[in-house]
Amino acid sequence: MVRGIGIDLVSLPEFRRICGDWGAPGQAGADIANAFVSRTFTAAELAQAAGRHDPCEFLAGRFACKEAVFKAVAPLTSEGFDLRLVETLDALTGQPQVSLAGALAPVLSEAGVTSVLVSITNEEQYVLAQALAQ
Asked: Per residue of the chain (134 residues), what is the pLDDT tens digit?
């Protein structure tokens, strides 16, 4: 049974501006813009991003996914939750999947959600994610 649905659209140029030089070739990652990246993404998400051709575009998709999951699940909870609890990693088959364990588990339990399906797509300057909470 569908419990909630969420969608989010991220402007890739704006996301790159917010992230600064994070993930750019030759950058050590010490600039102040990385505070957003380190506060928003899990170590596992950052590790997957680092192995990509365009790490910033990868993280833009993960950010859109966090927002979409928040929109799908937060209305089902008593107090909402911090979207940074959402961790989206690639399955072995390549598609994105939300980790249902860890800090997000009690939120999903309260919301009556047993699975969250996500899809991420990008086209030129935009990245879109959709989440379906069941």
From this structure: 999 999 999 999 999 988 876 655 445 444 444 788 888 999 999 999 988 989 999 999 999 999 999 999 999 999 888 888 999 999 999 999 999 988 899 999 999 999 999 999 999 999 999 999 99
User: Is residue 119 helix, strand or coil?
Assistant: strand
CB 90 within 8 A of CB 48: yes
pTM of the model: 0.89
Nearest to 61 by CA among 133, 130, 134, 132: 130
The H or E element that residue 12 is part of is: helix 12-19
Find how far residue 16's CA is from the centre of its chain: 15
